[in-house]
Amino acid sequence: xxSSMRFNxxxxxxxxxxxxxxxxxxxxxxxxxxxxxxxxxxxxxPMPPDxxxxxxxxxxxxxxxxxxxxxxxxxxxxHVKDTRVGRGEDLEFKIACRNDTTVGIxxxxxxxxxxxxxxxxxxxxxxxxxxxxxxxxxxxxxxxxKKKKDVEESKKAGTNRQQDNFLxxxxxxTSNENIASLKIPEIVRDSYKGQLxxxxxVMIVKIKTGRGKDDPKVEIPLHIGSPAVETVRxxxxxxxxxxxxxxxxxxxxxxxxxxxxxxxxxxxSVKVHAIRTSFRMGGSTxxxxxxxxxxxxxPLPVLPPPLEITLDHLFSEMVASVDxxxxxxxxxxxxxxxxxxxxxxxxxxxxxxxxxxxxxDQPRIGSLIAPVINNGNFTxxxxxxALKSTNEWNRIAMVQHLLPFCVDxxxxxxxxxxxxxxxENVVLDDDFKRAKSGTxxxx
Length: 443
Description:
Blueprint: E1 5-9, E2 13-17, E3 19-26, E4 33-40, E5 54-55, E6 59-64, E7 70-80, E8 84-86, E9 90-101, E10 107-119, E11 124-134, H1 148-157, H2 159-173, E12 179-183, E13 192-193, E14 197-208, E15 217-225, E16 252-257, E17 270-275, H3 311-320, H4 324-333, H5 335-342, H6 346-354, H7 362-369, H8 380-389, H9 395-402, H10 409-417, H11 422-437
Parallel strand pairs: 8-15
Antiparallel strand pairs: 1-2, 3-4, 5-7, 6-7, 7-9, 9-12, 10-11, 10-14, 13-14, 14-15, 16-17
Helix pairs in contact: 2-11, 4-7, 6-8, 7-9, 8-9, 8-10, 9-11, 10-11
């Protein structure tokens, strides 16, 4: 479940995720009832401990003077150790830069921004907030301006120069140099994507040259939530004292309740006595106003028959779900549904990846399904289909997760590489080599 949250936009516009616990106590003799209600503050479950790194494809920007004459180009790349970061944790990153201009670099700015979007029947509201910023990240090498002669030579080198920059920048951001970090605030909304509310976080790295609009920048999506299990600090919550329950037979349930003042809304002590089989839980969704408390208890609807085991029904569940990983994981454990995953063709596998709501979970869902397909005979065609369905910033991680499962990598490597950009091929080159030698571990 997403954490409780509220987002205010102006004086009259707001949206929230709010949880309420309601108890209706009915006197079986008089028919009188007491409704007690309390707000429940929910904190999302800890995020998975496995990291989701991201290496940004270097950005190259032409820098011009006021007359529009080119002064050369600046290229820089960024590597984030883990884009899935917990509240109060450090976000570690590396920056590498190449300044092929006659203009000096003044600053490298880094900030984390929160964007809240809320949809209503009459409008779509949004607001941006800077959570934390570093005005000037210190980077060793690559910042000094060049002589005009050197800039002209770089221009003539063209594509070859760009390929050299890729290799140089990748070497730097995978080294132990230029490591920096910033701390995510303890109090911050969770990243969340729902039908009405969308909370997203992004890391922005910008090179400041003093040339304004020509300053290059990159944006890196982040997923912020409760820290992973190894580092989570569980908050202490004070609850009301428990209500004593007398001993009864197997057929009956009763509660002797002396409701304390801590249970807001309760006005008197009552005794509820009912046959266990008469209890009904569930019902249709009820739309509540902010102050509404008199809500009827709805009977449990007739449960629909189990869903037919098809990809379309799986996609429908994923569209409406909060956590697609849990859905896929549970269905793989079901012998009937497992048959569907075992028989997935490349298009079906790509379709599942495309329907994952949390983009950050695409690679780990891919590696969850891959060993099941064709009894472990996962192919490069499946990997290629997943690559086409993966969000742009997750493509490298997706290939890294799936390469260890490809049984035909010796012959199918080229089909995957053709789908990759020049930068992605540079980053993944070592992964392909290790996968073919059997030394690339499963993530």
